[in-house]
Amino acid sequence: GENVEQHPSTLSVQEGDSAVIKCTYSDSASNYFPWYKQELGKRPQLIIDIRSNVGEKKDQRIAVTLNKTAKHFSLHITETQPEDSAVYFCAATPNSGGYQKVTFGTGTKLQVIP
Amino acid sequence: DADVTQTPRNRITKTGKRIMLECSQTKGHDRMYWYRQDPGLGLRLIYYSFDVKDINKGEISDGYSVSRQAQAKFSLSLESAIPNQTALYFCATSDSGTPPPAEQYFGPGTRLTVT
Question: Which run of H or E residues covers position B6?
Fold first, then answer.
């Protein structure tokens, strides 16, 4: 099955700096890579996703890049703000048959220091 | 997202007790999932269901069972709770009609403590 590794497990940055979270996956059949943000005490929510036919996707201050050859993808947050503090999960989904099982990474706790 | 609800939100139970966690959704999605979240381990899939007649084990199904009572309801049971089942449990839904793979919508979570 799919295995997703996520690094770092914790990340502290100064407000205004950039943050990068990296994930690797093992199953070359994976073709969908969502990122979820979980604020303290709240549910995970999708913030951005990328499909395997795209190398990069941006949405305001966040961007995701995908390198299919190396099987890794990254989340980039620029001009970080205190409200970016949360746990971020990457995930990979193989589109095999009728079910797309989502395998999550172990999470990165991001702290933005004002 | 109030469209996916879980009850109870918090529960403390004793070892050996049977407990049921319930999930309801008004999103009209056909696919439902149960995950558990443990610190440092991320979200791990317990069971998933494509529709009322379809139930499948996830990666950590031992000690758990589920029931899909209707398209909108998916319950998770711990037959005989043990302390290492202490965790935060999330229900999630997704729509097979959306070009796959699709976003998962999570409930607010149930914090379960087994003493």
Answer: strand B4-7
Count Cα neighbours of B38 within 13 Å in the Cβ-side half-sphere.
11
- Residues in chain B closer than 8 A to A93 (CB atoms): 101
Q: Which of these ranges, A71-75, B7-11, B42-46, has the smallest mean pLDDT?
A: B42-46
| Among candidates A6, A43, A49 on the partner chain, residue whose Cβ is nearest the Cβ of B90 | A43
| Token output for B56 | 């499948």
- Cβ distance B43 to A104 less than 8 Å, yes or no, reads yes
Residue B95 has pLDDT above 90, yes or no: no
Q: Over the stretch B65-80, which tens digit does the pLDDT of each residue have?
A: 999 999 999 999 999 9
Q: Report CA torsion sign: A89, A90, A92, A98.
A: positive
Chain B residue numbers with beta carbons less than 8 Å from the beta carbon of A45 are 1, 106
Q: What SS3 class is residue A68? A: coil
Type of residue numbered B87: A
Question: Residue A111: which H helix or E strand, with range?
Answer: strand A108-113
Residue with tokens 């097979």: B96
Interface with B, mutate which of A6, A30, A99, A109 (most B CBs under 10 A): A99
CA nearest neighbour of B85 among B25, B2, B24, B12: B12
CB contact under 8 A, B42 and A89: yes
Q: Which two tokens stand for residue A97?
A: 């048959």
How far is it, in rounded angstroms, from Cα A2 to Cα B96? 21
For CA atoms B45, B46, B51, B55, give the dihedral sign.
positive
